[in-house]
Design goal:
The chain is α/β, with parallel strands linked by helices. It has a single domain, classed as Alpha/Beta hydrolase fold, catalytic domain (Rossmann fold, 3-Layer(aba) Sandwich), CATH 3.40.50. It has helices at residues 4-10, 16-22, 64-67, 70-75, 100-113, 130-137, 160-163, 169-175, 181-194, 204-215, 219-224, 233-241, 259-266, 284-287, 289-302; strands at residues 25-30, 36-43, 49-53, 77-81, 120-124, 145-149, 246-251, 273-278. Residues 50-295 form the AB hydrolase-1 domain.
Length: 307
């Protein structure tokens, strides 16, 4: 019996990863302040669009496997971008470049470049906080709904320490270390392992891909990406009015985020809050992709239709 790869070769076709690449559109987009933002899209442009942003020190590459999911590709237009300071996007070294308004401008630049109309925004971990930036600085509300993968839609000194599992504090401190290369690299390796439910079962090439993304981000820039000030007033007002519906998806074996703290923080501020917990670690879209797709698509189908 022919293997799947042999069948592709005999038919003159390419493996699915190559097909995915050939059907994707990648762009380098200039944000309002001139910072370059890398973005790409795949799926069905005629369908509901979903914008994804990754977590700390990583890039949109983390969604490679998730974007290859047939159910997502056939039924949605999938867009992802590298947040400023990360991956293939620009990495300014001054603190002002990481002000809240610039994160909103980056999202808007990507939405305009791909002609998106009311996308659903999905942020993983640190990327979830961009939800607050968007709602605070863009009016009218440019998103149909918001989803956090293992995160909170807002940062802040009163919540950030509570969102992080105490067991990961030393690892995060090492990531920001710019005077000890050995400690910094060891911290990044431990951080990547902590993203998964059972790192010993994760293929080496996947962990190496994750680790490689962290290397292109200077420690000082990693720290700047955590330090911006946000005003959640408009976010909470939209949540209480029901104009913004929020979903939080968590892994039950998350070793990085404090899931219960994230829920308790936002719960009083959202009349329409959906919480799903699935058997997975911090990167639930890698550990349990089908369950993640189930939860995400169920929420999107529940959203009011675009006007």
């Amino acid at each position: 019996m022919y293997s799947i790869l042999t069948r592709f070769l005999l038919l003159g076709l390419r493996p699915f990863s190559a097909v995915l690449a050939s059907q994707s559109t990648a762009k380098i987009i200039a944000s309002r302040d001139g910072t370059s933002i890398y973005a790409d899209a795949t799926g069905n442009p005629a369908k509901q669009s979903i914008v994804f942003v990754h977590g700390l020190a990583l890039s949109g590459i983390v969604f490679d496997n998730f974007f290859a999911n047939d159910r997502l590709r056939e039924n949605y237009y999938l867009v992802r971008y590298d947040a400023r300071g990360h991956g293939r996007s620009g990495k300014p070294s001054d603190a002002e470049a990481y002000a809240s308004v610039h994160y909103a401008e980056d999202f808007l630049a990507v939405a305009h470049a791909f002609r998106l109309n009311k996308p659903v925004f999905v942020g993983w971990s640190l990327g979830s906080a961009i939800i607050s930036d968007i709602v605070e600085h863009i009016n009218p509300l440019p998103i149909l709904g918001a989803v956090t993968f293992a995160g909170s839609p807002v940062l802040g000194p009163e919540i950030l320490p509570k969102l992080i599992s105490p067991s990961i504090n030393d690892v995060l401190s090492a990531i920001f270390q710019d005077s000890n290369v050995t400690a910094c690299m060891e911290g990044r390796i431990q951080f990547i392992d902590a993203c998964f439910r059972d790192a010993t079962q994760v293929p080496f090439d996947l962990k190496a891909t994750y680790l490689g993304q962290t290397v292109v981000q200077p420690p000082t820039v990693a720290l700047l990406s955590l330090q911006r000030t946000q005003d959640p007033t408009r976010l909470f007002a939209a949540g209480q009015a029901g104009t913004l519906r929020l979903q939080q998806i968590f892994g039950d074996a998350d070793r990085i985020a404090n899931n219960s703290a994230a829920v308790e923080f936002v719960k009083p501020h959202f009349n329409f809050l959906t919480v799903d917990t699935i058997p997975a670690g911090h990167a639930m879209f890698e550990d349990s992709p089908e369950r993640t797709v189930d939860a995400l698509t169920r929420f999107i189908r529940s959203l009011p239709r675009k006007r």
